[in-house]
Amino acid sequence: MDIDDVVRQIASTAEGDAVVSNTGPLAVISANLDHIAHFGTDGRWFDTLGDRLCTDDSGNAQWLTLLDGAPLVAEANRLTGRSWPRLAGSDLIGPLLDEAEARGTVVGFLGGTRLIQRLLSRNLTRTRPALIVGGLWSPDRSALTDPEVCRDLAESIKAAQVQLLVVGLGKPRQELWIAEYGPLTGANVLLAFGAVVDFLAGSIGRAPHWASARGLEWVWRLALEPRRLARRYLIDDPPSYFHMRRNSSLSSAADGSIQREGHRETVHFSDEGTPDGSFVAIGDPADVVVCIVTYNSSALLDPLVAGLRGEARNLRLRVVVAENDSSDGTLEALSKYPDIIVVPTGGNLGYAAGINAARRFADRDEAILVLNPDVRVEPGAIRSMYRRLVRSGAGIVVPQLLESDGSVYPSLRREPTILNALGDAILGRRLPNRPWWLSGTDYDPESYRHPHRFQWATGAALLVRADLAEQLGDWDEQFFLYSEEVDYFRRARAAGAGLWFEPTARVTHWRGGSGVSPELNALMAVNRIRYARKYHSKPYASGYHAVVVLSEALRWAKSDRRGVLRTVLDDCTWDALPGPTASANAAQVLERFPRGAVIIPAHNEAAVIGRTLAPLASLAASGRIELIVACNGCTDSTADTAADFDGITVIEVEEASKTAALNTADAHASLWPRVYLDADITISPAALGMMLDRLERGDVLAARPAFRYNSSGASFMVRSYYRARRRLPSTKQALWGAGVYGLTEAGHARFGQFPSVTADDLLVERALAGVQKVIVNTPPVSVQTPRTPESLMSILTRNYRGNAELDSNGPGEVVRKAHTRQTLRELLASIRGPATAFDAIVYAYFTLRARSKASQRPVRGEAEAWERDESSRHQ
């Protein structure tokens, strides 16, 4: 539109001729690069103006955005090939006041100091004597952060019957105020025109025509007000310019008319909670399912539950607690609350795994509220979050977090990048007003006063829409603690969900639930690197890793950072960081343990079979699992030892063949899914339950648990070999290596019976190539390494002989060569210094020598030998 069109549309709407019933007032924006910085897709307030911020049912402001800044006009000219007029608020205000004076429209002015408003009143009286001024309001800036003061201000404007309100509070405050309180003013049109009040008052001079015509008005204003405008013009606007050039396109509706968004239907809340604040049971409908993960949290439960009881009077809440094997009496303390559903996880499985265990108790139409145990929910918080979730169509809503002293905790974060990580590494919490791209945390107080979108936030409290929770599925359990919420928020954004901050919902966070220690700080640093590796290229992740190293190097002397630098430098130490651990009390997991079968082939395993069966015996005796020990060619007491355990089926197979044992046990088993477990591997009930649960869902065909090599007592050369092996990514991603893997019925059908080969786990790996397999982040299975180089060579020779059996048929040779090349690349990439180079050489030596031995024809009698590690087989 040109200036005449705009003036005619706004003047007609202000007079009341063009106001559409129930759509709310028209809010007019004068858009420039500063507007893109605040409200563009990279801005803090992106999408804020398109949704209702006003918490009343008084209507939703409709937004008209005018092309103002010279760079925007130039971009419009470039995209369309035609010339567009610049519609600056400072140019429009004169003609608009002329129209208002002619039509008898009541005008009001909001913004500016009292002195400025006195000058404005004097100028208007002198230059526009017929203009009807309903009032001039000059609130203190601090007062604009108080909702009650703002409501009173809006009521005052409404009482003055203002039709056209000029709002000059500065960007973005004026737009946010209009969005939240504009509908309450009763005005038909609100003009977000920034410095117009100052221009009308004569306190600031307009740029001369030659400067405006050449797009240099910003230079003029910067020269007049360098302290106030330097950051805007020199720091914030340049990235906005490049963002605009990179992402601008033509709108599908470019006919020159005002495009009004449809009126959002008002949602009425019916206060369907319980009068006594009790929580609803499984099977009863709930609005929100509250998921809490506890670990040594007994002292935190009473204030947490008290706050939730208050919220349960307004919304139907189901409360589920995943108890991570606390040792401080948390489980006993929870027994005081019979209406809370308690889920013992069977160990300290981590925060993400705990959430996953708790969210199983939510139906598809119930929102999920994730809460830390160290929070207190303030009155009305969950209701406010739920209201925001429904009204804005948000996918996730987070509240305002308060410190224990009542101050606002800066909980809003930006997506991790090398630049903001570098800024945080060098500056820490200093210079909180630095450019946004140099800080991972949003420290701006303005961000915590208004609802708006964000990128991610501290995960102490977050409400997830039911359908989004279903779409995203489980939280990523590779993040035992820390970074799991960063990952979840990122996946939500990738799914197109809006993430909203709701300041009227307040939650006090004591921030003491996890404690502080060098080990936890090391885990936090390492998980930041893991997150970068998950979502970025190798070069980018390496750069991010380097920045994390720099950050820890600058803080190495602090008592709570001791050893952190050493840990982030050496990937091999990451396995020793805090991670999932199994409970010593296996009975805790019996109640809801998933059903399935466990098959253990055993050849002369009397020395170790007892320790393998002991953790699973109670599961077998209770009938939760089918546990079958297939003794193949045993000449010792393996069968008798296994038969001493109740509920275990023992089968004796004459042939000393592992695959024969597997096939015979498969024929006896009736349950799916099935876990195949080597007789010298000990798996905890928690790890087994997590595997069966993951396979039971039906979206994967195979799984294996996490594992760790236990090289205690091993020789130096053996430890060096396994250090190198741990550094190979393929070791962490394959089904083989842990001595245990699981299959669904559909996965097993991919190959039918186990053929007569040595490497059954590699067979399964290849049979399921290209289909969904998963590594379940369980309490790790401990894989005992050989203790001597001779024993290591023995099992490697057997492994490579088994690989050769598979490679001898058709495409197997191609697969072997591809795997060899991949291993070589990974081995070379693992070298980062003399120590890692030595480990890589040792790995290559054992590998090449074992492959050479495996390719040789065995001497008479050697074929019948059962090649395995005898050096570590002891009770």
TrEMBL record:
**Which InterPro entries does the record cross-reference, listed alphabetically?**
Glyco_trans_2-like (IPR001173), Nucleotide-diphossugar_trans (IPR029044), WecG_TagA_CpsF (IPR004629)
- Glycosyltransferase 2-like domain: from which residue to which, for each copy? 290-417, 598-719
Q: Which domain of life is it from?
A: Bacteria
MF terms per GO, please? transferase activity
CDD domains documented for this protein? Glyco_transf_WecG_TagA
Q: Which NCBIfam families match?
A: wecG_tagA_cpsF (TIGR00696)
Name of the molecule in the record: WecB/TagA/CpsF family glycosyltransferase
Q: Which organism is it from?
A: Arthrobacter sunyaminii
